[in-house]
Please model this.
Amino acid sequence: MTVHSYPTPSHRSAVILLGGLVATWNHRFLHAAARRGLEVLLLDGPASGIDARHERGLRSGPPHPLARIAGHAVHAADDSAGVLEACLAWARDFDVRGVCCLREEYVDSAGLLTDLLGLPSPGLRASRVCRNKYLQRRYLGLWSPASELVGPRDRLARARTWNRFPAVVKPVGRLASSGVRLVLTGGELLACLDDYSPTEVLQFEERIVGPEFSVESLSRDGVALYAEVTEKRTTEGDSPYFVELGHTTPAVHLSEASRASLLATHAAVLERLQFGTGIAHGEYRITGGGRVVLTEVAVRPPGDSIMALHWLATGFALEDAVLGLALGEDVAPPASARRYARQVYLAHHPGVLTAVEVDASVGMDLTWFDIAEVRDQIVSGSADADPPSLRCLLGLKPVGTPLGPLRESADRAAMFVVDAPTPDELDAIEDSVRRGTRLRVMT
Model:
């Protein structure tokens, strides 16, 4: 572990951010802290490259977001004791006002740290249960599909006796849909076991058929302040894997009755978790009979560009609200959605990426994602009177990258974000950008 702090007057007010430095939008938390005059203490894993990136930010000086960090630590997420010790050392030199967990790997540590320091948080039960796929199924069984935890030693025997098909296989220790796949028969289940490490713990689940949605919610002391529904697109119709290829906020293909049922289920899930303060991200399916079934629930900001979609839809930055809740502020809830926003990932076939071509008619140049940079990919916000707009066009893989089949989120190669006043206009601008953007892949 390496911990870097910088000489400061004692007990300056600060907020701790755990993980998430590489995410496209998470620098907005840095801006939210700066608006409050707070120092930022950032802890992330070795793969984040935080040491070099912070030094680069310091050399750049203000207004570079990373120049505002007063201290940073590098520590693996699987060592909660080490993470706690690094953060408690900061608490001796700073007045730590709040803790925000930005990545799933740090949820356990965040729950323990906030409990130790007496700071607002989702709570110990919510943090512990939401970090563990097995515990989610047991604590939240009323809303969950039938499932079975399968250890490495009895994997083959359990696969032979599992009789609920189609089924979903999940490695419990991975993130971002990695390794999650659909199997239709017992033979397919047995055949897919070789795709997992011999030491991985798996979960077999019944396959729930129906459209997928997520609910992003803000709560303070167990009282809901905001909840909105995001609609999903995935690869599941064309693939045994469950890779998300699109998000729309608010959901457009959802009846009022189904929306009410979905929000009620999410509220019941949070009550069962004894959820306190912060943001929750629950993923659900709605069956043809109208049953709402929980896929999983997280107590940290959602991935991809979902936070930005809420901002485009409501005009309210959820990052600012999440930070405010972590600080114990009375946060005003966002207004109802006034626009529709959508993120689209462009599908590809396997091969080597040779180019991403963008027609002039699209009206925006492609930007390449660079992990060394921390900047907003959306160059302008939305207003009620704005026409349908392309807000972001981003290449995620550099030219020359070998592209495999879409099996997890990290395999996606390019994406864009659009928003519009109506669903029909949203569909139209999506179609226009799709027609004008092409991934060239050499097989």
User: Anything to note?
Assistant: Residues 209-338 form a domain with the D-amino Acid Aminotransferase; Chain A, domain 1 fold (CATH 3.30.470.20).
